[in-house]
Amino acid sequence: MAETEIKKKAELIFIPLPGIGHLASALQLAQLLIKRDNHLSITVLSIKSQITPFSDSYIRSVIASQPQIQIIDLPKVEPPPQELLRATQHYIWTFMQILKPHVKATIQNILSSSYSNPVIGLVLDFFCVPMIDVGNELGIPSYLFMTSNVGFLSFMLSLQKRQIEDVFNDSDPELMIPGFSNLVPSSVLPRAAFSKDGGYVAYYKFAQRFRDTKGIIVNTFSELEQDAIDALSDGQTPPIYAVGPLLDLKGQLNPNLDQAQHDRVLKWLDEQPPSSVVFLCFGSRGSFIPSQTREIALGLQCSGVRFLWAMRSPPGSDNAESALPEGFLEWMEGKGMLCEWAPQVEVLAHRAIGGFVSHCGWNSILESLWFGVPILTWPIYAEQQLNAYKVVREFGLAVELSLDYRTGSDLVMAVEIEKGLKHLMERDNVVHKKVQEMKEMARKAVLSGGSSFISVQELIDNMMGRN
């Protein structure tokens, strides 16, 4: 490519899924790319969804000081029928088909603008891969962005060895998945894999498109998942770019959280001894039935550990009060704190935190490694069971409480929770040492000359046609 061509601005169009868990890392990637190459500009197409009402304000807050990143709102469309929500993946697949013509029209408007830079690629959340068709029609290559890890990517690609009607069953034998050193039990596969309501079919269709991209960008780093990356370097899979950890370390505030609650949480942590507090947080969609909430409270009480517990039903609400054991609120004075929401990044970065009871969303796992806080695994939905299996059995970077818990399954009893909490907080626990080592590797990966730093440059060179 001629030097004059390279010096022109080149535009990437990002199409992220509007859920916060997907948006956070996608926007970090966008900021990283423009920081690394000032010849790039980025347009984010914002999908309007009733399910994720705060996504638009989140995008604007993150990119407010980034003139090289602009946002274009896609038009609101009639959503798919509500009954399709029985299988979220099927709902999203259908939603993407509805959005396709609107995405095409929006990109055509960008291309025809007199101010337009040449568009060199679409960067698509893995749930947005149907938009590959739009890119193909307009002569624009697509890149897949995996907000999860290479292990999940490998599982999705492995579906192509099955049939589209071949839904998984609980009784299925353990699986060989490329990049996993152990056989993977069916009990830790995402719930959609078992869905006869369209979830499995949607997964299959999404995965079918992964290899139709020019490259696969993953929010991970090679020191963590090199074996899995190598296993997919098979000549059939597009090049994999491990560019993480991509973390929103500023921790954009939840719109439901007032500053007073934020300050109250951090003030309480300031008063606790170093590495003495367990942080319990189960993600934006993680909540429990009252009987499970009660078991958690009993487990905390019996373990004696200090705790910060982000509950979906905060103290003071009828649900929370009735679920907690009698006298629990009085007992926990000075030992624990309950809140509806906590600023997770700031909490994990706090010197008082010594352990993290987590739903094992991939962003949360990366944050825990970045700050060197070991996890006690309690997966709930999506691919979290597979994530938990990977960090416990494959990496040895977490303590196992549950690997296959799902909403509505058997209760995790207080005695198991107590045992897990005590094990998590043992200072001579081998997991603590491994997590500290991985913390150093994660931070080196993103520095100049680190594995992710190099991978980002290779990605940009690919996008700009330099390799």
| Envelope shape | globular
Mean pLDDT: 91
Q: Bin the strand percentage.
A: 5-15%
Regions with little confidence, pLDDT below 50 for 5+ residues: 1-6
Task: Give a short account of the largest sheet.
Answer: 7 strands, parallel
Helix content: 40-55%
Q: Round the Cα radius of gyration to an integer and report it.
A: 22 Å
- Number of DSSP helical runs: 18
Structural class, from secondary structure content?
alpha/beta
- Termini gap: 10 Å
Number of strands: 13
- Lateral strand order in the biggest sheet: 3-2-1-4-5-6-7
What does this structure look like?
The chain is an alpha/beta fold and 467 residues long. It contains 18 helices and 13 strands. The strands form two sheets. It has a seven-stranded parallel β-sheet, sandwiched between helices. Strands 10-9-8-11-12-13 form a six-stranded parallel β-sheet, with helices on both faces. Mean pLDDT is 91; it is low at 1-6.
